[in-house]
Amino acid sequence: xxxxxxxxxxxxxxxxxxxxxxxxxxxxxxxxxxxxxxxxxxxxxxxxxxxxxxxxxxxxxxxxxxxxxxxxxxxxxxxxxxxxxxxxxxxxxxxxxxxxxxxxxxxxxxxxxxxxxxxxxxxxxxxxxxxxxxxxxxxxxxxxxxxxxxxxxxxxxxxxxxxxxxxxxxxxxxxxxxxxxxxxxxxxxxxxxxxxxxxxxxxxxxxxxxxxxxxxxxxxxxxxxxxxxxxxxxxxxxxxxxxxxxxxxxxxxxxxxxxxxxxxxxxxxxxxxxxxxxxxxxxxxxxxxxxxxxxxxxxxxxxxxxxxxxxxxxxxxxxxxxxxxxxxxxxxxxxxxxxxxxxxxxxxxxxxxxxxxxxxxxxxx
Length: 365
Ligand SMILES: Nc1ncnc2c1ncn2[C@@H]1O[C@H](COP(=O)(O)OP(=O)(O)OP(=O)(O)O)[C@@H](O)[C@H]1O
Ligand SMILES: [Mg+2]
Fold this sequence. Notes:
Elements: E1 2-11, E2 18-28, E3 33-37, H1 44-51, E4 59-64, E5 68-73, E6 76-80, E7 88-89, H2 92-100, E8 102-106, H3 117-123, H4 132-145, H5 161-172, E9 179-183, H6 191-208, E10 211-216, H7 219-225, E11 228-233, E12 236-242, H8 243-248, H9 253-261, H10 268-273, H11 277-280, E13 285-291, H12 299-308, E14 311-322, E15 325-335, H13 338-350, E16 354-357
Parallel strand pairs: 3-10, 3-11, 8-9, 9-10
Antiparallel strand pairs: 1-2, 1-4, 4-5, 5-6, 6-7, 11-12, 13-15, 13-16, 14-15
Helix pairs in contact: 3-5, 4-5, 5-6, 12-13
């Protein structure tokens, strides 16, 4: 439903130009929640602002189902209708039409402080051509949708962060958009409010069939609600796939860092650095075992231990369900004769467990 094709956005700096987005192509399916992660400065916000042309790319095109396509050629924008070859220079009307179909929410909510909740949401309907009673009805409907009807006359200063974001979501959905862009919408919220906003987004996605493009630097957010994801680094997409695939088998170093940050298993490095007795006290080889969809899980440990006569000692364990499949694994030491340890590792690999030997954690036999 959204096709992003080779989008490039360069900011002209005083000394050097910043290639904020560098030839990014992605397609986002109708009704999915698509996560884009990356460190600060990776180009996430710039890319997502190119989708509704708040940012004007130099090159590339954005095609949206039901709208058509806008293509940038050397910083000039051209519109072509759905299925049409011919293009015309983009007008304000095209941009307005595109943006009506795309709502957006931000980290700092962007509410008008001097206006009530009602007025903040109603503002989005100002140019909709609706009459006052119609607007009132729609605003109340939206506040019901985000469970905030009782705050209709409150001012933003009287609301919690989570409630402010609910107002922003209601406002973003006022014109019945098919797409919602969310730029770090939960980054300013505490964990509880984050969870409730994510739940709301998932709920809206399912109830309204809303397609959501969600930018975040928190992997936990992606894990909680996204179907597919992309990782951005220095203006490029370096990895892309289903959330399960990316989490269970990250390919790029940056992706591995992100994945580890969201898993208890990442803590093993802290244990190693701090010389924790958890690792140091037992003899053996320190390994990380990652389970995948086809792995058999815990039963394997006792089997391997018996079969190869090795001692396996679990240091950290973290297994959870992601998209209804088990994900995670164990950090453990395997002690025994070197050839037995090796055979045990080989056997586990045959059983589709990904086994990595953590070299710098190797303990003397
Ligand atoms: N208006 C601007 N003028 C000049 N440079 C900009 C502008 N907006 C962004 N940039 C630069 O473009 C690059 C990408 O910025 P962007 O805001 O897209 O990153 P981001 O991934 O959203 O980061 P964050 O996680 O901090 O929000 C950065 O190097 C930034 O400094
Ligand atoms: Mg940003």
